[in-house]
Amino acid sequence: MMPTLLLQTDAQDEGIEMCSVRVGQTLYGVPVTRILEILGRPAKQPVPLAPSYIGGLVHYRGEVLTAVSLRRLVDLPEHDAVEDILVFEGGDGYFGLLVDEVGEVMTVQPANFESNPSTLDDRRKALFAGTYKLNNALLVMLDPDRLDPMCLAETSPA
Description:
The chain is α+β, with helices and mostly antiparallel strands. The protein has helices spanning 4-14, 70-73, 122-127, 144-147, 149-155, and strands at residues 16-23, 26-31, 37-39, 54-60, 63-69, 84-90, 93-99, 101-108, 113-114, 128-133, 138-142.
């Protein structure tokens, strides 16, 4: 049996698989292991009187999925394009994350990770888990636990 420290080092050398998503001009990444499913352009229903970050409700395998709009969370204007949804399991059941487009799965190296800059406002610090430096871009890391509608309800103004 290999020592635990050696196993952790090997895992870090292999990198972390991220699913890239785009919202506006920004590239975001979500650990692949956290995504249950990607729904390509499902129909969503608006939720009257819901907090602004709720993008709608979606039928998902016999359940109703609350979808959080990343576009609204980062204060981008609405657009008419149909969005994709990443499905996660949260503390209170399944939830979705609406994004403009799902990209590719890429492997990032822990050595290329930078924590959030101190100049980032508190709201964005609560949403973003840091940034990975890519060859020609930055990949803003999203932590699904921070995007869970129940977590957002506790930390965000309506």
